[in-house]
Design a protein that fits this description.
7 helices; disordered C terminus; alpha+beta; 236 residues; six-stranded antiparallel β-sheet; 20% strand; 42% helix
């Protein structure tokens, strides 16, 4: 076995009917490699369900097994090196980050039912990807972690498919305690300054209960009374 450092990978399990199309996964992974600085990229479609992308001395393997046990299809994502002597591994030190980028990109659209992560010193290839899928079946992976990107996608879908003819929610009537508080504040405002007090009462009647505007009005009246030095005298 050739030692190449840490080869990292993940196996995603998808419930029946939620399996992503492998052509879509292949295009997605190829686009994500555009983010990496490499001198040469080679893309090999080994089988209909297996893709190998080589970026100089780095390698990415994708394998889709649509006949998984427990009504789960499985997608293996493996990132590692090719073992070429003297080759430039452009993903050295960031294999785990790049693998997670691919996994999150797939999960943002096709949320998996479960996921399982692996590390292995072997070269990433089709055989290793199939071994990872077999190992994922044996050790019953835990449910996938909730992802922020998936949550954002769900919120976006909810907003896009929200019926336009749904009635708008009726604003709740102000509570009795709020109306009583506004009434007391209006009386105090009129006692301090009759014109401004009437204006505040009229505002609350016409625009609805507005505690913020009433409090601001009382603050203005208090400031004016403080400047004149004649508290609780109506301002003429």
């Amino acid at each position: 076995m050739i030692r190449t450092g840490q080869t990292t990978g993940a196996v995603l399990g998808f419930a029946t009917g939620h399996m992503p199309d492998f052509d879509w996964v292949a295009r997605l992974a190829t686009r994500r490699t555009d983010m990496v600085n490499y001198d040469e990229r080679m893309v090999h479609r080994v089988h209909d369900d297996c893709l190998v992308i080589e970026l100089d001395a780095a390698r990415v393997v994708l394998l889709l097994d649509g006949y998984g046990e427990g009504c789960l299809s499985r997608l293996a994502v493996v990132v590692g090196g090719t073992g070429q002597p003297g080759g430039s591994d452009v993903l050295w030190g960031q294999r785990n980050a790049f693998c997670r980028l691919l996994v999150e990109s797939v999960a943002a659209v096709h949320e998996p039912a479960c996921e399982d992560w692996f590390t292995d010193p072997a070269l990433p290839d089709e055989s290793l990807a199939r071994q990872m899928i077999a190992g994922s079946r044996r050790r019953a992976p835990e449910p996938a972690h909730i992802r922020l990107a998936a949550a954002h996608t769900a919120d976006l879908r909810s907003a896009l498919y929200h019926p336009l003819d749904d009635p708008e929610p009726t604003p709740a009537a102000p509570a009795l305690s709020l109306r009583a508080a506004l009434g007391v504040m209006g009386v105090v405002a009129m006692a301090a300054s009759l014109p401004l007090g009437i204006a505040l009462v009229a505002w609350n009647v016409l625009r609805g209960a507005d505690l913020r505007a009433t409090a601001a009005g009382l603050a203005v009246i208090g400031l004016a009374q403080g400047l004149t030095g004649l508290p609780l005298l109506p301002l003429a």
